[in-house]
Amino acid sequence: MKNYAKLPYFIIFSVIVLMFACNQANNSKEKETILKGSTTIYVDETLTPIVEDQVAVFESKYEAKIKLIPKSESETVNSLFNEKAAIVILSRNLSNKELKIFDQRKITPKVTVFATDAVAFITNKNNNDTIVALKDVISFMQGRPVASIKGLVFDNPNSSTVRYMNSLAGLKAIPEKGVFSFKTNDEVIKYVSENEGMIGVVGVNWLSQPMPTMQKYVDNVNTLGVIGDKSDKSYTPSQNNIAEGKYPLARDLYIINCQGYSGLGMGFASFVAGDIGQRIILKSGLLPVRIPGRNIKIRKQIENDKK
Question: Does residue 307 lie in a domain region?
Fold first, then answer.
């Protein structure tokens, strides 16, 4: 009889525990909003500098914590499919084949274009050549000898720069002869700064915003002017040349949000595409999608405001 008497109390206690657990679960879901909480973003490592700048400012303005995980492009894309990540930043959009995977999961990725980046060619400061023809780089990748090119140096076999250049050359894999790869853009810059005759292939943001420890290596390389297929003139990857469509190796940057709900992915994408985020892009040397406006007061207005 004693055991049966205790049964209602046990049931009541179990119900209370269950309600508390459910409440905690709901609270954990409610912790993340578009401007509050924490999340993880996988980023193509060639884009890391500009994304780090955006995250730093975003976190300073809101009660948000974003963990950035830099990976190669292929690893970043795969993180979406194996559900390690719900938000990624890439230098390309998802393909139709990739989108079908999310259709099957009943998720519609929200894609935000936020800037235009560029692939840059660099050489040692002591090299006499300051110009390279894109067709010569492609010929070298295809296995044909080019007198002005001793070798090409990439950051990572699975990087976006390798995929981009392979696409231009009509290749499926990085060539073995005369083409070398490291792990990061910093390693490429350091190697080229210490070895003459090599051409490094890097994301331009690594040159415009180097870490303090990398500045001496960046100072010892030249960014080559590139002659494209549509012109006989060479152009460097400057903000102006990218904006005017003159530099032949420009590429758009994308935030791809597959969270499926209104979380930090949505808030961060809106921030980067908004006025403050676009000003950060402009200051970095990349090309923002929208040029931030400037408010100019003429002298007469200032005097009237003082009265």
Answer: no
Please report where in the chains the tokens 């981009």 appear, as a residue. Answer: 164
For residue 175, what pLDDT is reported? 82
* CATH code, domain with 66: 3.40.190.10
Alpha carbons 185 and 60: distance in angstroms, whole number: 27
Give, as one character, the DSSP assignment of residue 113: E
Q: Residue 12 pLDDT more than 70?
A: no
Q: What phi-psi label fits residue 95: left (phi over 0), alpha (psi between -120 and 50 degrees) or beta? A: beta
Task: State how beta strands 36-44 and 63-71 pair.
Answer: parallel
Note whether 119 and 204 are within 8 A (CB).
yes
As a whole number of angstroms, the longest Cα–Cα distance in the chain is: 98
pTM (two decimals): 0.83
pLDDT surpasses 60 at 8: no
Quick one: DSSP state of residue 184? S
Number of domains the chain is built from: 2
The amino acid present at 238, given as its one-letter code, is S
Nearest alpha carbon to residue 37 among 68, 58, 57, 66: 66
Consecutive H or E run containing 38 = strand 36-44
In a domain, 299, yes or no: no
Which of 7-17 are b and which e, b meaning 16 or more Cβ less than 10 Å from the residue's Cβ? eeeeeeeeeee
- Say how many residues make up the chain: 307
Distances (CA, A) of 307 to 137, 296, 297, 299, 304: 64, 19, 15, 13, 5
Take residue 152 and report the two structure tokens written for it.
């090409």
Residues 108 and 213 in one domain: no
